[in-house]
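Project standup — Tuesday

K.O.: blocked on the structure for the chain from last sprint. Re-posting the sequence here as requested.
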Amino acid sequence: MFNVDAEMTGGELELTLNPWEGWDILLGVSLLDATQKDVPGPGGRLDRPMPNAPDVTYNALARYEWPLFGGSMAVQADMNYRDDRSLSAIDHPGLQGASYTLVNASVEWSSPDERWDFKVWGKNSSRSMP
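H.V.: unblocked you, prediction finished:
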């Protein structure tokens, strides 16, 4: 095992919108530049990307809620995108994680007294990028 110096710069931007009654929209992006310095390896000491540190990630959520049968009904969809990334500190070509997107969706009804909640959802529908 070894430990080396690293440099990281980046930022995040989040936006929350409530454009109409019953609507919630959330959007986010993260940009990251993360490098390990002077990592020892067969080719000498090289700068390598940090493991599990994608350059770009995105997320979004949209939810709409309205009254129905005395209770409340809601539909929601959200997604998360993660850019490709190194999975190892040595940055071996066989240890690269492909970019992917996860999508979730749900439909929900809550009773007027909120003692009952019925929900149908789909989770982690995924698409890997080549």
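K.O.: great, moving the ticket to review. The radius of gyration is 21 Å. The chain has a mean pLDDT of 89.
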